């Protein structure tokens, strides 16, 4: 595996101002403007800075030039990378001053994490440490480190190797990581440590965490605010895991009719928890409505009413009679402990309105005593409202993929959250920058139905411009929540993004558009060159269910990543499951951002098999591009444009020229058309094309060959441009 030590800066203070994601992105920009002699001058900076999202709304190119000129009169002066970083910070400070507030100080990142000053909530840290001490305490690896002392930095020291975070992810969503893929030696070298953190971040994305502002080096350094932020998300996912109709069908009791059930399906788990809390408070005679986990809970009264109605055997009238909020909060916690609820917070946390800790506490109460009826009629109705297994798996995959893009809106349910068109416009703007006309878009909340239709009509229009196959499909189909159509459109979006990423890495070869057949042939050629006998006939090849081909492919792109002593023959269902789980974790450990499940490999789900193969191909070509850069092999996220012209071109051109492209197959797949049950036939055959007509996926809608070239999209890991 390529060596990774992060982007290092000699000045510790300067290094502390940026996360590794920021440093890699800025390093990429710096490299991209080097001239033929490898120099960067002040004159080269304005075009680069003016295009960064941190400054696009604040300065144009001329304004950037004037600001830089104030501190450097010679525009031909050569600057090194550290001077480049200082110029960025200077410009960022000017942007903050110009805005009149601090809101732009973190505009470089999608999340609200700033790079200047970070405060750690000591109470939250103590609660997370208590949680960690309690759940994985019997783990054979962690038990020698636990319990942790919340008063020290033991949590951050333990997090540096990545094992703890991987274990926490598996506690939150069991089976996410194959623990055989975790490097658990007592002393890890830099590569092994980086692999653990890469596995952690890609797995965190796969359970719904937002990690666009965190890099592996940030975790290696155990930056407290980033580590706690990630742990907070993981614990939140664990505590809220049962707040849905599939896991807890009794929640249907919270609503009155089927229309309300649909609304309940679309609510985020936090909102469901509030709805559950208010349901019981109303029955208990509490006249106020709880709308948040902060100010509405400060006096402790809502907690007192809730616990009195859920656990009357432990109720005490003195809890409500007490005038002192802090004393009441203490009595509430004592009452909750009788239900075996963990002490996630202190009386002070309740009085001060700590939102994260209050949410965790209410979730604990729900897990131990939800107070909902076990009426089998209601439960049957709830189970009838949930989707079938295949639809649920696809919805999960696309939901996690969308959230991994770093869009402003977090998606909780694809079928509900996408119906107003806004999220789809955000995604389209991510994968095809500039394609959305925001002047003609309406941001939620949207009261007028026709505004939703307008948003969705623009979605369909852009989809057709990107050569998606959308026959007789209108925006209203999305507004109406046509599940098959929504899934079909999202698949075309995901496939288009994958092919564009690969295209951007291979443009040096000046070859054809990347197609499904290219991906298939690349994988087969890679395995064959390594002397392996496995081959993939198509993305629906049933032999893929054993997992052997993908393990051989992963071993070919990085020989040290697969431990063959852990691989089974894949003959039994149990052996197939073991191999499939291992494949996903090994791919994520390399750096592949994938959202499939082991069942997708075992059942040979063609869509997910294609995404897995394409992700491995993208990682492999990306590594070659990074390694071929002169002296910049540590910049894993550098864009292809930032490569040195000579050697990198040769490497990629050589890799691509090895592809045996079947022209007929390539022509048939040059536009991102949807395959309902298959995406490519055998490599030597012409692939059938698919289209969507009136929301139904149909066969036999051939590409005309006259489609316009698809616009370029930005590469993965470059959200901060």
UniProtKB/TrEMBL annotation:
Transmembrane segments: none
Classification via Pfam families: CH (PF00307)
Annotated region (Disordered), positions in chain: 628-721
Record's GO cellular component terms: actin filament; actin filament bundle; cytoplasm
Major subcellular site: cytoplasm
Gene Ontology biological-process entries: actin filament bundle assembly; actin filament network formation
Sorted UniProt keywords: Actin-binding, Cytoplasm, Cytoskeleton, Repeat
Domain Calponin-homology (CH) per the UniProt entry, residue ranges: 122-239, 267-370, 392-498, 513-621
Alphabetized PANTHER family for the sequence: FIMBRIN-5 (PTHR19961:SF79), FIMBRIN/PLASTIN (PTHR19961)
Protein name: Fimbrin-5
Species annotation: Rhodamnia argentea
